[in-house]
Design goal:
alpha+beta; 4-stranded antiparallel β-sheet; 25% helix; globular
């Protein structure tokens, strides 16, 4: 019984380390949005929304190649939520 439990624990540790190695993400610099620091991000389908400090919300429809400022400008946007 002890050998079975020990084997299970070792297998669990190995499996966990393999999952962690496969979950490495990379960030790629894009063209913006310009006009401040990005405080929040949200995705809805192919649209990316970025909340900034003092410049409102920007959105991108082409995987962040271009950004457009929305009507919600001159605002600090600390969080974004999807309905």
């Amino acid at each position: 019984m002890k050998k079975t439990i020990s084997f299970f624990i070792v297998a669990l540790i190995i499996n966990s380390s393999l999952l962690i190695d496969n979950c490495i993400c990379q960030w790629v610099q894009t063209n913006g949005p310009f006009g401040g620091n990005v405080l929040s991000l949200a995705v809805n389908g192919n649209n990316i929304f970025a909340g900034t400090d003092d410049n409102g919300v920007y959105f991108s429809t082409n995987n962040s190649a271009n950004w457009t400022q929305t009507a919600l400008n001159n605002q600090f946007v600390y969080s974004l939520a999807r309905k």
